Amino acid sequence: MKVGIACPYAWDVPGGVQVHIRDFTEELTRRGHTVSVLAPGDDDDLPPYVTTVGRPLAIPYNGSVARVAFGPRIAARVRRWLVDGDFDVVHVHEPASLSLGLITTLWAEVPIVATSHSAMRRSRAMSAAQGILKSAFEKFTAHIAVSEEARRTVVEHLGVDAVLIPNGLFVDRFAVPPRPDWRSGDGTLSFLGRLDEPRKGLQVLLKAWPTIHDAFPKARLLVAGRGEIDDIRRGIEPRHRDAVEFLGGVSDDDKAAMLASSDIYVAPHIGGESFGIVLAEAMAAGAPVLASDLEAFQVVLDGGRLGAQVPVGDAAALAGEAIALLGDPARRARYRAAASLGVRRYDWARVADEVLAVYEMAIAVGSGGHTFKLPGLP
Amino acid sequence: MNWEWLFVTIAVLAALGVYLSWTAGRLDRRHARLAASRAVLDAELLRRSGSVLDLATAGLLDPATSVALADAASRARTAAEGAERYQAESDLTAVLTAVLDDPADLEPLRSDPAAAAALDELAMACRRAAHARRFHNELVRGAVRLRRKMLVRWLRLAGYAPMPETVELDDTVPRGLATE
Fold first, then answer.
1. Domain A171-345 in CATH: superfamily?
2. For chain A, which terminal residue's Cβ has fewer other Cβ atoms within 10 angstroms, N or C?
3. Is the pLDDT assigned to residue A310 strictly greater than 80?
4. Per the CB < 8 Å rule, is A345 touching B142?
């Protein structure tokens, strides 16, 4: 099968959608399909399957900065990619972002599958663009949402339905041994996410930390993620500071090792998470999860069967539950056992099967018809 | 009478003609896609009842369960087109849900590789059927929106094609298969 995937964000900027597309492409290529990814950005140092369309613009969108691409020059490159690729099916990601997904939708003449990732509050741009988006969305043969919240977003904003297929991960790659130097007598806690992004909730965890550290003086906290480490370090009370280790940005291998070394992976996020792939990663690495009770996290943790949950933003509850968990190895073992089975649901082996089934159906149904061609254009 | 007015009138009529023929073409393609997606849905429902029959006749489940599953599956496969068929498919879902709802019940079964494979196949077939129905209904809703437009109705651009209807049936994936 020849598949063209339109990625809305620059390939060299780290982000969940890019990782999703990268891993999915790898899985499809392994199965013998041909995949070409179109992304904004410049040409150097990218995997061979990525075609770029030039510098993206940084614009505020959905509460953070998105790098997106549009304009006539980019439209011409998108058309060239579609012609050269001769795809059986085109998969556009995040079609509601004013980016490659939308342009691709306008020009593609093959069946289009769309995937919506983000959950959004109603924004002015979305409302103003609704008419255009709605008519573009009519060309989709199949629409996927990665989470119930993402699905509700497209239903509410655009009045179209989508089916639920979760994000995937390579579960077995997280089965790595723990690193002895990251273990500790009373237990190791870990956090993962941008330090200066309030929605990731590091501030909640650091507020809870002194209480946890007082109860378990030999416990330590590993914090992985980019940001102003020095400022945040200084904000921690001196006697609790040395037990916190900042790892900065970590490689995929170090991330897996950190999770595998954790007695509790803490996800204190306070919002903005549509799916929570990082919870699935922790589950795959065998780290018992303690998360805020965001709706997306409740789904991944199966309502508390696969991990512990506390109210969003409640540092005292977080501290209490972390202390309870550190003192109860049996409960952690239960979570670990249930999660290692439950996380199989998100393994690419299974998720890619489901997406490929959608492709088959989309190809059988056919495309949404021809675009209005101007004379003289390919 | 002024020449400019004649010119403007001709231009407006020409634009209207282009728009109408484009809309008629759009409607035509929509109806073709609807027929195709309906065929896909039928195929996926057959795949689902087929997987149920496979599971029921493989000798992996107890006899009572096997008989209940096989009966519901063959009813779904032989029901007459239309409402009766959808009812039979919903009934099949009800039996599946009754039998396969608890992940814990299925755990011992999964230790047998053959049973695990049959359950996985059935899970995928259930999801495919549920997805196919949603995709089809979405195309139906799009077509209905287009056909409700005033010009389309007044000028009968859709010809005598019947107004498309969504397919309503219960295709919930049993919990035991959904959270494997």
1. Glycogen Phosphorylase B; (3.40.50.2000)
2. C
3. yes
4. no
